[in-house]
Amino acid sequence: MTDDIILDAVDLVKNFGDASSWLSRAPVVQAVSGVSLQVRRGETFAIVGESGCGKSTLARALMRLLAPTSGKVLFDGNDISDTRGADLRKLRKDMQFIFQDPFSSLNPRMSVGKLVGEPLEVHAPELSAQQRRDRVADLLRRVGLRAEYAGRYPHEFSGGQRQRIGIARALASGPKLIIGDEPVSALDVSVQAQVINLLGDLSRDMGLTLVIIAHDLAVIRHMSDRVAVMYLGQIVESGPTAQVYDSPRHPYTQALLASIPVMGSTPGRDKTTVLGEMPSPAAPPQGCRFHTRCPHAQAICKTDRPALEGDTSDGHQVACHFWDSLASAAPLPNPQPKTKAAEARFALYRAAVEGGTVKHNTEQ
Amino acid sequence: MPKQAKPDQQPDGCEDILMSLHDLALRFRGQTNDVIDRISLTVKRGEVLCVVGESGCGKSVTAMALMGLLPTEFAKISSGILGIQATRLDLSKVTMPTAMRGNDIAMIFQEPMTSLNPSFTIGNQIIEAILQHSAGSRTDAQARALHMLQRVGIANPEQRLSEFPHQLSGGMRQRVMIAMALANDPKILIADEPTTALDVTIQAQILDLIRDLSDETGMGTIMITHDLGVVAEIADTVAVMYGGQVVERGAVAEVFNDPQHPYTIGLMSAMPQLDKPGGKLATVPGTVPSVANMPEGCRFRTRCVFATQRCQVRPPLSNTTQGHDVACHYAPIEANLSVAL
């Protein structure tokens, strides 16, 4: 991994309901308040947080789907915060988006060939119709679909296949960066694993940079190199995924990790470690925004906002006044070991799925 | 089709069995295949049974059938005996009497916003549920509603009683649903994906609440979920469903530490693990066939990497160890087959 920064957000702020008109007296919602982050070329960067924490707004602001209220976003060194018109269209060639819901993000009246070919019409108008069809066939094969599917319509496909179509469409313009907003959370476990594998293969083979927004902590652990944890519009902790998961420093990250139900952990113990629910982003608490739910909150947390800081050597940063004294060793619950026989069974299964020849001992 | 004996079905009355469902089979009108293909479940006092499977495996339909919520013009139940304590109902002939629904067996749903009426206050809706089943006065019902809200951990219950659903957060709404379901002290609670729409910190709170209430009251809980993590968190026993069949069931520690069915193994392999990041996940190839295209015999065979011709005959659910059943001709697979790379 190099220190080559592809996407750089500086003090990004996005408020909704700012443009106070005499018609609306709705409160200003501070969806993203002062987020700075850097994504390195070729890495998979994850943003995790609960619903309402502003992670989807952040993703849209990073992509210039939304204009930030203040702050800026640098893509490949160029400020894109107020790019518009033809420049913005050119920018879309390099940045693409994968949406959460494969059912509503594909136009039901367009064939798959048309859906995947559409970005090519815009970004590679020099291609002839035949060349475009060939490219579409390549792209479909790339994401594990058959080239013949180009003539079919979205309703003929399952959720996982539709998500593959969405990915092929995102790949069509040959982007450098893909942002996925919950790209696998609408899928069933077995299909989700297929799409996770696909995204991993693509980023490795094509040198893509991925930014993944998700709420599923196990998915993020599996996919990402670095992770940022968001709470109420701010990043409370960020760093290399392994470090953040193995030694979380912020009480919120610790609580999130402790809340994950884990297969094989001892059931029946109380896991509830955060109190209550997230306050409204229209009226965020003063000081540290997490203090209303934090079991360790003290007087200073109610008044002073802690800065995101930490060791520069490993890039593990945290925004908490007391992280030094709170940092826990390893809150990950240790799964119970499987039986020997079960281990053998899992190995057999993996071997068979990866194309091994199955031989049955018993008579047919 | 051969009829299987259920080797582990104990005679009724044993070990505090609260509810038993025997050989439920049903199909939707106009279909030629059963959506639910002869499944049996039992729940004991204080037990949390998780029914786990992917979308389309029939887990929610099973719950609806238990509650008598399937309209007869859409679904035909061809067999199924539901026993709740001393009561026996032949589901193919009768639907559940309204008096039982809510009183003996209650249900909570995935989306607490759509299952609460937006135009009535919380208090109104809980009180209505109570008055449906008891002859008491409205004042008594109000006191009971207040008590229930306290019990499910809602702060300021007096104030909440007069609020409307939109004034509550998702987690609170689910607590209200639980309060409403438990207001009449049901013997069985059916929870259909109760935490799927909630964030993980709130999910942990709700799971704790359901666990505590079931320990406290001794009610049996049937929890429908797609999340194996949730199962590990809350369940005593688990039934894994695929294509309308129960493929494996048993105590949760047994099933997770010693899974036998290829589908269970596939599901567990496909889950990203916190302690083993990176690398490729072993998947379950393909997707679930539609009901019309369900194969004969073992319904998992079209996606099973180990399937043979023998799988065209449905394997019986049979014991591996005490209380752990699996429906696979080749279980235990490590003894019956080998794989060469």
UniProtKB/TrEMBL annotation, chain A:
InterPro entries per record: AAA+_ATPase, ABC_transp_ATP-bind, ABC_transporter-like_ATP-bd, ABC_transporter-like_CS, Oligopep_ABC_C, P-loop_NTPase
GO molecular function, one term: ATP hydrolysis activity
Keyword Metal-binding: no
Keyword Zinc-finger belongs to the record: no
GO cellular component: plasma membrane
NCBIfam families: oligo_HPY
Subcellular location: Cell inner membrane
Organism field: Sulfitobacter marinus
Superkingdom of origin: Bacteria
Membrane topology per record: Peripheral membrane protein
Keyword annotations from UniProtKB, A to Z: ATP-binding, Nucleotide-binding, Transport
Family that this chain belongs to: Belongs to the ABC transporter superfamily.
The name this protein goes by in its record: Oligopeptide/dipeptide transporter, C-terminal region
GO biological process, any: transmembrane transport
Domain ABC transporter: 7-257
Automatic annotation (TrEMBL), chain B:
Membrane topology according to the record: Peripheral membrane protein
Residues of the ABC transporter domain: 19-268
PANTHER family associated with the record: DIPEPTIDE TRANSPORT ATP-BINDING PROTEIN DPPD (PTHR43297:SF2), OLIGOPEPTIDE TRANSPORT ATP-BINDING PROTEIN APPD (PTHR43297)
Segments forming a coiled coil: none
Top-rank lineage group of the source organism: Bacteria
GO cellular component, one term: plasma membrane
NCBIfam families on file: oligo_HPY (TIGR01727)
Family: Belongs to the ABC transporter superfamily.
Protein name: Peptide/nickel transport system ATP-binding protein
Location of this chain's protein in the cell: Cell inner membrane
GO biological process: peptide transport; transmembrane transport
Keyword Iron-sulfur: no
Keywords: ATP-binding, Cell membrane, Membrane, Nucleotide-binding, Transport
Molecular-function GO terms, alphabetical: ATP binding; ATP hydrolysis activity
